[in-house]
Design a protein that fits this description.
By secondary structure, the protein is of the alpha+beta class. It has helices at about 20-25, 65-70, 75, 85-95, 105-120, 130-135, 145-150, 165-180, 215, 220-225, 285-310, 315-320, and strands at about 1-10, 30-40, 45-55, 100, 125-130, 205-210, 235, 240-245, 250-255, 260-270, 275-285. Strands 6, 7, 8, 9, 10 and 11 form a six-stranded antiparallel beta sheet that branches.
């Protein structure tokens, strides 16, 4: 038996309001555009590799973010095989008696969805998770990304091998795999694909009612928002939420599996006198993180200036009461 480390890249709809997405729905949220894999020898060294581009048939326009990360566009994929042919090529290259390995749990779910959607009958062994083995070996409280794992093991990236290319990422994953004390233990971490849900920008969570603003922000609902992808509890940054207006707040939380989340909260004073707290969640981009930290500093400065001028801190309850109750629920 030999090990094959595999990595996938995929495209997504330009908008979840497009005709294509409305036609296929959640049956195909992400369409694969590249398979990259390396074979690992008896001494856990890389002995062979393959990169198979895949020409998409549904999301044919490559999302700008995907193109920027993968450096794959319509012109690079124009002559590539479609999914079923690509899978046949991959299976033929794998040979017989092998185990598939990946970094993390995303690839197995995307692969399963694409195989189901296109009716692929290729028989594959279970995919085992190197990331879980790495986390257990190094006693990581949270899952580490591939780059972080490489840094921990002092593995230097090659300038010619940029990240977010399936072959390059598979190669780097194999280097991490080889540096683990007992790489064969990865067989203890088989993965099960998870159903994929549409969470391209955000998920709105229904509001909860509270007697006061203080109670609302001390609640589990606010302190432990659930990731829109896996529904696991995320850990709110210690600094908490930043007030943007009397009824809008913003903050950052970290999902142990899917990384930083941008959390937006909306407070509304109901006619019965309760404080209705609603929430929007999205994956946080680096720009979101910088924005939140900047707004926090601005808020602290404004609050200090207000207290110096008035001799007391802001009355958040009174300010909320002044907000127009007829304003539409936020969607940002």
């Amino acid at each position: 038996m030999h090990y094959i480390v595999v990595d996938l890249e995929w495209n997504q709809p330009l908008s979840f309001d497009t005709h294509v997405y409305r036609e296929v729905g959640d049956r195909l949220i992400f369409e694969m555009i590249q398979i990259g894999a390396v074979k690992v020898g008896e001494n856990f060294e890389v002995i062979d590799s393959i990169s198979i581009p895949i020409r998409p048939t549904h999301y044919v326009k490559i999302h700008p973010r995907i193109r920027k990360m993968t450096q794959l566009g319509a012109e690079e994929l124009a002559d590539a095989p479609q999914f079923l042919e690509a899978m046949d090529q991959f299976a033929a290259w794998c040979g017989e008696d092998y185990t598939l390995l990946t970094w993390g749990c995303d690839d197995v779910s995307v692969l399963k969805q694409n195989m189901d959607f296109f009716g692929c009958k290729v028989a594959l062994p279970p995919l085992c998770d190197i990331q879980r083995l790495f986390s257990d070996v190094h006693k990581c409280r949270e899952r580490k990304g591939l780059k972080a794992a490489m840094e921990m093991l002092d593995i230097q990236p090659d300038e010619a091998r940029y990240f977010h290319n399936a072959l390059h990422d598979a190669y780097y994953t194999a280097l991490v795999f080889a540096k683990l004390p007992n790489p064969e233990d990865v067989l203890k971490y088989p993965q099960q694909p998870r159903p994929l849900i549409h969470s391209d920008k955000h998920e709105r969570r229904k509001g909860h009612s509270f007697a006061s603003i203080k109670e609302a922000f001390e609640s589990e609902f606010a302190r432990e928002p659930r990731c829109p992808v896996c529904a696991k509890k995320a850990k709110l940054e210690e600094e908490g939420y930043v007030r943007q207006t009397a009824d809008k707040y913003i903050g950052l939380a970290k999902c142990p599996q899917h990384g930083m989340l941008l959390v937006r909260l909306r407070l509304q004073l109901t006619h019965s006198g309760e404080r209705l707290l609603s929430m929007n969640l999205a994956k946080a981009a680096p720009s979101n993180r910088a924005y939140v930290h900047t707004k926090r500093l601005q808020q602290q400065q404004r609050d200090a200036e207000y207290e110096a001028a008035h001799g007391h801190p802001r009355d958040l309850e009174a300010e909320l009461a002044m907000v127009d109750r007829s304003s539409m629920p936020f969607d940002d």
